[in-house]
Design goal:
mainly alpha; 3 helices; transmembrane; membrane; GlsB/YeaQ/YmgE family stress response membrane protein
Length: 85
């Protein structure tokens, strides 16, 4: 169940980030969703003690949420910096 929750969390945050950043290119939207899923799975799994098939702890959920959000903010900051350079 933790695996499914983390995948949905990462995909949702990536999709919301693409909406907030007004990203319109399909490749960029998919990169944000994929990045959100990967970061959410890795950090949520680490914070949950390495178990992905059992239940998800509040710590694992919180860490996955925070790190995915931070990764997406940094991703957009780097893209804007490259566009302005």
């Amino acid at each position: 169940m933790a695996l499914l929750v983390l995948i949905v969390l990462g995909a949702t945050l990536g999709w919301l980030a693409s909406i907030l950043a007004r990203t319109e290119a399909p490749g960029a939207i998919l990169r944000q969703i994929a990045g959100g899923v990967v970061v959410s799975l890795v950090t949520g799994g680490i914070a949950n003690g390495g178990t992905m098939l059992g239940s998800l702890s509040f710590l694992g959920l919180g860490v996955a949420l925070a790190t995915t959000f931070i990764m997406l903010v940094l991703y957009h900051a780097v893209l804007r910096r490259k566009a302005n350079a």
